[in-house]
Amino acid sequence: MDTQDAQNNTLSYTGFWKRFAAFIIDWFITLVGGFIIGFIFGFVYGFSTGTAEGVEFFSGVLGFLASWIYYAAMESSQKQATIGKMALGIKVTDLNGDRISFGKASGRFFGKIISGLILGIGFLMIAFTSKKQGLHDIMAGCLVVNKNS
Predict the structure, then answer these.
(1) Which of 48, 49, 45, 74 is nearest to 62 (CA)?
(2) Consecutive sets of 10 residues in the chain, 149 residues long: mean pLDDT of each?
(3) Residue 22 in contact with residue 88, Cβ under 8 Å?
């Protein structure tokens, strides 16, 4: 058994429902944050241009970028978790149980788009894989583990 296998044997992988609960918390946070950012942007945009034309598109792009930065920055931080994951005592690691980089966290975030586009099967994989990985986790080389690991 190599060191990676020994490390992975000590990790406690987080299951589907706990991860789903963390997602709901994070979804609410990004929804409220996106609404606030969109409101401020829409107000400034409308005031400076004198029109609301195009504000929905730009607000959508801004919301997407804010969501990406939220997930990638939080999951690659010292805490290794978003607020929802912290609330439930889980964190994101690489395959060795170490902290992931911003780039790897970004790959994981964009991989979630693919997990969703294939009718959510990429997310459902969490319930059926041995390391509780979704397609986006496998693509990015990540694990979601209980924090006591």
Answers:
(1) 45
(2) 51 96 96 86 79 78 91 98 98 96 98 96 96 97 90
(3) yes
Q: Quickly count: other Cβ atoms within 10 Å of residue 113's Cβ.
A: 10
Q: What's the confidence (pLDDT) of residue 129?
A: 97
Q: What is the pLDDT of residue 50?
A: 72
Q: What is the DSSP string of the chain?
A: --HHHHHHHH--B--HHHHHHHHHHHHHHHHHHHHHHHHHHHHHHHHHHS--TTHHHHHHHHHHHHHHHHHHHHHTSTT-S-HHHHHTTEEEEETTSPPPPHHHHHHHHHHHHHHHHTTTHHHHGGGTSTT---HHHHHHTEEEEETT-
- Non-local (6+) Cβ contacts of 11 within 8 A are 93, 97, 143, 145, 149
